[in-house]
Every structure is written in C-alpha cells, then in structure tokens.
Amino acid sequence: MSSCDHNLAVTVNLTSTSKIQNWAGTDDVLMRRVEADAGTSMLVLEAPKQGKVSDYEMKSADLDVELGNPDAEYSCGVKMPSGECAPVCPDLSHTGDPGVAFCAKDRARFSPSAETWERKY
What we know:
Low-confidence stretches: 116-121
Order of helices and strands: HEEEHHHEEE
Distance between the termini: 20 Å
Largest sheet: 3 strands, antiparallel
Mean pLDDT: 72
Number of domains: 1
Structural class: alpha+beta
Helix content: 10-25%
C-alpha cells in the first residue's frame, strides 16, 4: 500500500538503500517516509513475523543545487515490489552518475546513465 498527498522528488543514497533492502525478508515491509523540506527521509523496515521494526534515517541531497539540474516536472511514478527493486539500486549506483528512469504505461526501464547500458524491468 502506498499513499502520498502530493508529488515529491526525493534523492536517496542507492548504496545504503540497497543494503537495507537486502536485509528484508520476503514477508517484510519496507517503507520510505518523507516530509517536504525535512532534508531527511526515514526508511522503515518492518518484520512482522519477528515483531521487529527498524528505522533508518537518511540525509537527502539537494540535487538541483549540487548538480545544477533545472526545475523539472515529473510525468510518471513507478510502484514495484521491493524484491524487484532491490537489484535496481546496485545497478544504478554502479557508475556513480545519476540514474535515469524511462517510463511507459506498462513498464519502466532503469539505467545508470542515459548513454550507457540499461537493464529492463
């Protein structure tokens, strides 16, 4: 289940996110909680079978300032199970460049760079 009051672009550290995703079991729940202008996001890993909840606070980077990206309007969003998302993070962080997502109605393609290889999901 997902909920969002409005569209919000959030930058995340893919290496850290990938490590946390790898700790998740198949029945665990992984949520990202973000408040606008907070400067951080909270990654929450719930393991219902063990009765455990782990919170990981992650600092957000201001990519518009750091990379000089112009204001952008995002026309799509991607929802996918954490098991499918887990291999995407290491792939995108491989080059150290910003990742790129190409979205269509029924699929999404992720690439570590618009000019390098891409992995289809």
